[in-house]
Amino acid sequence: MLESAQALITKTAEKMQLDHEMIKRLIEPEFAHEFALTITMDTGKKKVFKGWRIQHNSALGPYKGGIRFHSETVREEVQALATLMSIKCAVAGIPYGGGKGGIVVDPKKLSKAELERLSRAFIGRIAHIIGEDVDVPAPDVNTTPEIMSWMIDEYQKIIGRKSLATITGKPITMGGSLGRTAATGRGGVIILESLISKLNEKLKIKNEKLTVAIQGFGNVGYYFAKLATEVGFKVVAISDSRSGVYDKNGIDLDKALKNKKEKGTVAYTKAISNEELLELDVDVLVPAALENMVNDKNMTKIRAGIIVEMANGPLTQKAYEYLAKKGKIIVPDVLANSGGVTVSYLEWVQNKAGYYWTEKEVNDKLKVMMEKAFEAIWKKSVEKKMPMKQAAFEVALERIISAMV
User: Fold this and answer.
1) Which of 76, 82, 166, 327 could form a disulfide with 56 if both were Cys (CB 3.0 to 4.6 A apart)?
2) Of these residues, 88, 100, 328, 389, which one is catalytic?
3) Nearest Cα to 71, choosing from 34, 102, 40, 35?
4) Are residues 313 and 169 located together in one domain of the fold?
5) d(CA 342, CA 391)
6) Mean pLDDT over each residue of the chain, to the nearest integer
7) What CATH number is associated with residue 82?
8) pLDDT higher than 90, residue 68
9) Are 99 and 54 in contact (CB under 8 A)?
């Protein structure tokens, strides 16, 4: 993953004719913090957990990026994600650089008390290198608003004052923003609508004639499905980690959600596999689950004309290149799923100002910012006759370089 992220930046930078030293500055993280956390378990025994905070680039503003708790987290993954956060924030047009944190742990194997101790210990270790104008962590894989509440509480105890803007993704009662839960999915739908609007200038198609298949029914996939349906797209397939469901007349999200809660799967009627979902004959495919789900094993079977990358890196580089050559329109993850970090930015702004917006105001601001981000990338893509992914990386690097000294 790290090699892929660095290769994308290097390839784009070389096409922009940047010199070797500038490319190195764009690739290498400014700081890489690695540490061990020793926690007292409920049994009274001590246990050591490994963690990282990678701070990639701060040219545009404070480092910004989530903290993930996962048993397979490695330093290279954290660094890759920090690197891509620099690109994503620049693409979104928000004044942040990129950062990322991680701990090697399966949170499901910890009690709530152990999880809280680990969360507080993590902040204790990085408190001196974060801050509302330095580095602003947030939730990521397996971390929640509750975990953020423990972290911001611990941070404020350490520094001895209020500083709500240092961590985003908090509960509403602790300075979190309304609209954050649905933000990533909402942002993706806004981008899809913007794309269809541009294509309509030639194709004259309407939302309700477009079929959508969504792989992944977590927070991102669910809200993408819900909001896409509300604005007129026909969502005909969804899936979770266990199975999927297809309905040519449109998915009944209430039934899928009810079945998920009661039986552990979204398949309220005849089930399909995740692999079958990816290969459906639909207009729009939305991989919103894990990385590398579209790869050299299934890339020749992808029939959708538009692919919206709502997961991070759902297409391998080989699959991306193959599908791009086939004329597929691929909306890159650094644009498509940037709604989450955009509303994190709005939370940060509200915390710093001590003034809070309604959910409608947050959603309206998100729409304006996502549409502006899309316009810049679409313009670059059309003018230079390049895929949207390359255009996104060029726009991002131009913005980062202009701020570097």
Assistant:
1) 82
2) 100
3) 102
4) no
5) 20
6) 94
7) 3.40.50.10860
8) yes
9) yes
